[in-house]
Amino acid sequence: MNGLHFRRQQIIDGFIADFYCHAARLVIEVDGQIHQQQAEYDTERDRALSARGLRLLRIKNEDVRQNLDSVLARIAKACEMI
């Protein structure tokens, strides 16, 4: 996307990021229903990743399925902020 490389299932500090772009220092998490049950874990994980200077973008599974163009626009916008 826009010349940037994204890695899938990137391990960062023992956490597995769904997608990671090193150049943009951006972690993208695609959240399914399981994330409703693990909110405390996600909060701690987000803190740890943010402490490394990484930005996080959480996207719901249903948004990916139903509004892919909008999701891609959000990701592109987040990448412009580098």
From TrEMBL:
Instruction: State the name under which the record lists this protein.
Output: DUF559 domain-containing protein
Write down the Pfam families for this protein, in alphabetical order: DUF559 (PF04480)
- DUF559 domain: from which residue to which, for each copy? 1-79
Fetch the InterPro entries from UniProt. DUF559, Endonuclease_DUF559_bact, Restrct_endonuc-II-like
Name the domain of life this protein comes from.
Bacteria
* CDD domains the record matches: Endonuclease_DUF559 (cd01038)
